[in-house]
Amino acid sequence: MLNWELAALTVIAARSSYAAPAVIGVGVGSSCTNVSFTNSWLIADCLTKADSSTHIQSSVYLNNKITNDDGTLKKVDGSFLGSCNTYSLGGAKLTCSCQRSAGYTLTSALNLKEHIANYAGRLLSDLSGPPAVPPTSSAALFPSDPSWPLRFGDIACYSPDSDFCSRYPFSNPGTCGVGPGTKPESCYAVREPLSGHVYRAFAQLQVGAPSKAWRVEAYGDLACTEKVGSVEGEEQGTCKKLGGRAVAVKTVPLWNADV
Q: Is residue 215 helix, strand or coil?
């Protein structure tokens, strides 16, 4: 158990798709065990307050909440994992070796207790505002392998400027793959390495996540507002025909995750 001496913090849950009551964020040290930092996620088993023994495993994705400011960790969005390494978690501090513009690395530590606490069993961040506590929790645990490689079928060219597709036909419109990802993607489109806005559109989707712990949603537009299908659970590993041609995906963790 980490010795996190967090002051209690009273917050009003932010508006979301469900109504959430006022909750109190309590000290992780006094209410959470098995705290770890794995694959960009802070993970812990936290008491729900239902009794003195019921815990829920939950996690907070850190890479979109921390940045490397010339060798110093800052609590803002900035993808620190791209320029920091040699991570360690001790007490409330996340310590990393981060690159500086001068060409050398600097060891920097960030006190996570300022923006992360246990809310009724859920580990949540208030960096973007008071957190809305989900009314239900998932029984799924953080996967040992959180990767989610994708393969697309029935591929065609898509571009907001249709002229690009006439100038850049795909040399191989068959099935192709995307490298494994391990992070939640709010809206990810597969862009061709060409000059101009050229993307792969696909009518079939295969998800190869070993853990089956992700739901991958497919969208027919680059803003991810027009959903044409999704793949999750036992559907993974097979090539699923979508309800229309998609150009982007959203990846949603099925365990308790604050993304």
A: strand
* Residues forming beta bridges with residue 176, ordered by sequence position: 152
40, 41, 65, 44: which is closest to 56 by C-alpha? 44
Tokens of 131: 């957190």
Secondary structure (DSSP) of 28-65: HHHHEEEEEEETTEEEEEEE-SSSSS-EEEEEEE-TTT
| pLDDT tens for each residue of 159-177 | 887 678 887 766 666 666 7
Distance, CA of 110 to CA of 80 (rounded, Å): 12
Based on its alpha-carbon atoms, the radius of gyration of the chain, rounded to whole angstroms, reads 21
Q: pLDDT digit string (tens) for 15-71?
A: 222 233 344 455 566 788 999 998 889 999 999 987 888 999 999 999 999 999 999
Q: What is the CATH number assigned to the segment(s) 9-125?
A: 2.30.60.10
Q: Where are the chain's structural domains?
A: 9-125, 150-258
Report d(CA 188, CA 17) in Å as an integer: 23
Label residue 62 exposed, middle or buried (CB < 10 Å: 0-12, 13-18, 19+). Answer: buried
Angstrom CA distances, 163 to 19, 83, 172, 197, 199, stand at 46, 38, 19, 10, 13
Q: Please give the DSSP secondary-structure letter assigned to residue 6.
A: P
